[in-house]
Amino acid sequence: MADEFIKGLGILTGSGLAWMVLAGWYRTSSFESTKQLIEPLHSEPGGLFDLLAVTMMDAFLWFAIIGALTFWVLIPAGRQLKGALDDRRNAQ
Q1: d(C-alpha 60, C-alpha 85), whole Å
Q2: Which of the chain's termini has less CB crowding within 10 Å, N or C?
Q3: CA angle at residue 62 from 59 to 68, to 5 degrees?
Q4: How do residues 18-61 score in pLDDT, each as one tens digit?
């Protein structure tokens, strides 16, 4: 269980940091704003690298959420289900 926790935490912190850096560059119009990091894009992507960064920003956000939930919820739940099914099969 500890290895799943640290894998999920690593995914969450690594992807969260990458998302936060990119969101700070592309979604923060000013430091006085109360909606930093969640504003709409303050300018259209001008070139290939801007478009790639905006796309990766969304990918990092979803990877952080889905990756952490996978290692913290889905894998342990699958192991519990497998164990319960094995116990039920062995009891019969």
Answers
A1: 35
A2: C
A3: 130
A4: 999 998 888 888 778 777 777 888 777 788 998 899 999 999 99
